[in-house]
Write a structure and sequence with these properties.
Chain lengths: 592, 94
């Protein structure tokens, strides 16, 4: 039995079998075969094709179930490519004619096909070469007798172990069997942590060497609340965690459960200090919307539509149907749709075009939407069409200048004119405040838009130039950096002076320490992911305004992170009742 | 043998999903299915997704479809239906 400690990024306890996700493939060598070895090599290849087909069919069925036909159809195309005479037929012929090993034949044929597709004019079809590379990779894994991304189907209680969680992993692992994550790097606000929280899957990051120390098949306990992982626990430890797991309340899942036990998570009228909205990643996040007791959908991240398929494949009709459902669920409250926040580094056909050395500062968000205008236009038209009830709002991500806002507005006006949808305007418009430049031009931006959505994740990391996935105490606590607080104060004052509205949508609002900080600066609108709702609601109901003002005054005098951290620890028990404050301190002890 | 020239009219042309549907339709029949650009002699096997993708058939392009075999009439009818319905794109709810 061994215990590893890291940072809990998604609360709860998970138990299950470790499955290591191995990103690398061994290098491929050319081996010349004797003629009488060729039949056996062909059988080895055919077996690998059969296994690959079976895996793809499983992924296809899973995606069909979880995300619908639009997403699974791409896998269907992969299966056809795998079985195509130009692909596996050509590989078989190559093995036989050249008397070479299957690995080498796969490499030669897939590289040849990729060069053919590079020559195609159509950017969309050129993207197929990445599909071919994907399929070849998967096939090579199977020829080597390994399952790509670990053999996850052996177990029905999978704890994924990897250096870093990637988004594509979610399409690989059967979500029903996925119980938890234990990851070497990553942090509270990395995108996968956000998704783990919205799927309620316990996750611990910053474990540094878990992927080296744990082997596939080890039994693990992941304590996402305390940020700990127990490797091969003894019977007694398992019983102890089972007991905590089975308890509806208490310390087991940190303050989330504590609140459930007190009944504080039950939806009630608006909390005393500010309005609480929900952030959604997927349409199904809102399935139980009416029971959540929120003031609306503060941020609907539309990127899931893109997951696993080309941007060009998303039609106006599809946008419209997703947003209409969203509008109906939220009605009569408003739902705020953020247009695609994608980076060129995530889109195969653009990756080559831009060769970005620093994608975080590159072609992404509204810049990419303006550049790839057709996809953006289809999204805008879908929003306009879906807005029958007039309760939709629109937010542009990653805005750095007034110019971008004007261009985006002009595109919206043009889309409305061309699609005969001018009667759907004006649509309430907002921009994300997530690039530090917006702090300094907040007055000018306020002239352009109706509201703002504060994206603290990027705003913090760009302000302090500290990657949020970097594993240092300073980066974890940087939302409390004095420069961030001053920036937030400037934003708050600028928005208030122009009489506009601002909702804090970033992870700061989901974290009780930093929610206090946002409240102290003056913000009163917050939007968080579903699992964070009870905690945020509890904070908003229980915080005393006079204490906040005092806290703000004290914060303003401090210049070091160290002193600010200590102030948080001292003041927390004054803000919240004792057992709750203690649980919070314990839960987030790694943060300070 | 039956032969017809059909026009691609879905917005994205014959991309992967549309090609997958075409392969699935063609594979339901015993007959052999060939596709070609009208200005070229080179025939593509209608049951090969990579072959079809290589045609790079964008919206508005015309393809010569040749079907030969015992069920050629039914196969051609199904392929014509697929072209006419823009490869069933945008028909299903997301």
């Amino acid at each position: 039995m061994k215990e590893l400690t890291g940072q809990g990024v998604s609360p709860g306890i998970a138990m299950g079998h470790a499955v290591k996700v191995d990103p690398g493939l061994p290098p491929v060598f050319k081996i010349r075969l004797r003629p009488d070895d060729i039949p056996a090599e062909l059988r080895r290849f055919d077996d690998a094709v059969a296994r690959t087909t079976a895996q793809l069919q499983q992924v296809e069925a899973m995606l069909q179930r979880e995300l619908g036909h639009q997403h699974s159809a791409m896998i269907g195309a992969h299966i056809l490519i795998l079985q195509d005479d130009h692909f596996s037929g050509a590989i078989r012929r190559r093995i036989a004619a050249d008397a070479v090993n299957a690995e080498w034949a796969v490499k030669v044929v897939s590289e040849h096909l990729q060069t053919v597709y590079v020559g195609l004019q159509d950017a969309y079809l050129r993207e197929k070469l990445h599909d071919i590379a994907d399929i070849a990779d998967r096939l090579l894994h199977n020829i080597a007798g390994r399952t790509p991304n670990g053999n996850t189907k052996q177990y029905d209680d999978v704890i994924v172990i990897c250096p870093e969680i990637s988004l594509s992993l979610f399409s690989e692992v059967n979500l029903r069997h996925l119980k938890g994550f234990a990851v070497d790097f990553g942090g509270w606000t990395s995108h996968t942590s956000i998704i783990a929280r919205s799927l309620n899957i316990p996750a611990v990051t910053h474990l540094k060497a878990v992927s080296a120390e744990v082997h596939t098949g080890d039994f693990l306990i992941v304590d996402g609340s305390a940020g700990a992982v127990v490797v091969n626990p003894d019977r007694e430890t398992i019983e102890r965690f089972r007991h905590r797991q089975s308890q509806p309340a208490g310390e087991a899942r940190g303050p989330y459960c504590l609140l459930e036990a007190r009944g504080d998570d039950k939806p009630k009228p608006a909390p005393a200090l500010g309005a609480l909205y929900i952030n959604a990643e997927l349409p199904q996040d809102l399935d139980d919307y009416t029971g959540l007791g929120v003031a609306g959908v503060g941020l609907f991240r539309s990127e899931f539509l893109y997951l696993g398929r080309p941007l060009d494949a998303i039609t106006v009709a599809e946008h419209e149907s997703v947003y209409r459902r969203l509008a109906e669920q939220a009605y009569p409250a408003t739902a705020n749709i953020r247009t695609f926040d994608l980076g060129a580094d995530k889109i195969p056909q653009l990756r080559e075009q831009f060769h970005e050395t620093n994608p975080a500062l590159g072609m992404r968000g509204i810049r990419l939407s303006i550049f790839l205008q057709e996809a953006f236009r289809r999204q805008l038209e879908g929003v306009l069409r879906a807005n029958d009830r007039g309760n939709l709002r629109l937010t542009f991500p990653f805005v750095s200048s007034v110019d971008e806002v004007r261009t985006a507005k002009a595109i919206l006006a043009d889309v409305a004119a061309k699609a005969d949808l001018r009667h759907r305007l004006p649509l309430p418009l907002g921009v994300m405040l997530e690039i530090p430049s917006t702090i300094f031009i907040i007055d000018a931006l306020a002239e352009e838009v109706d509201f703002f959505a504060l994206g603290t994740n990027d705003l913090v990391q760009y302000t302090v130039a500290h990657d949020r996935n970097t594993s240092t105490d300073a980066s974890i606590f940087s939302p409390a950096h004095p420069a961030v607080r001053r920036g937030l104060e400037m934003i708050f004052a600028g928005v208030r002076d122009k009489g506009k509205e601002v909702i804090c949508c970033g992870e700061m609002a989901a974290h009780p320490f930093f929610l206090l900080l946002l409240l102290a600066v003056g913000f009163r609108g917050f939007s968080v992911n579903k699992p964070a709702l009870p905690l945020a609601r509890y904070v908003l109901r229980n915080v005393d305004e006079t204490a906040l003002a005092r806290f703000h005054a004290e914060l303003s005098k401090l210049s070091t992170l160290d002193a600010i951290g200590r102030l948080f620890l001292e003041r927390l028990p004054e803000f919240f009742p004792r057992p709750f404050a203690d649980t919070l301190l314990e839960l987030f002890r790694l943060h300070v | 043998m039956v032969q017809k020239v059909l026009t691609v009219n879905n917005p994205l042309g014959i991309h992967a999903r549309a090609a997958a549907r075409l392969v699935a339709a063609a594979s339901r029949f015993q007959s052999r299915v060939y596709l070609a650009r009208p200005d070229r002699q080179e025939q593509i096997d209608g049951k090969s997704i990579l072959g079809i993708l290589m045609l790079a058939a964008s919206r508005g392009s015309r393809l010569r479809v040749t079907v030969t075999g015992v069920d050629e009439a039914a196969a051609m009818a199904e392929i014509e239906r697929l072209f006419a319905n823009a490869f069933d794109e945008g028909m299903e709810a997301p």
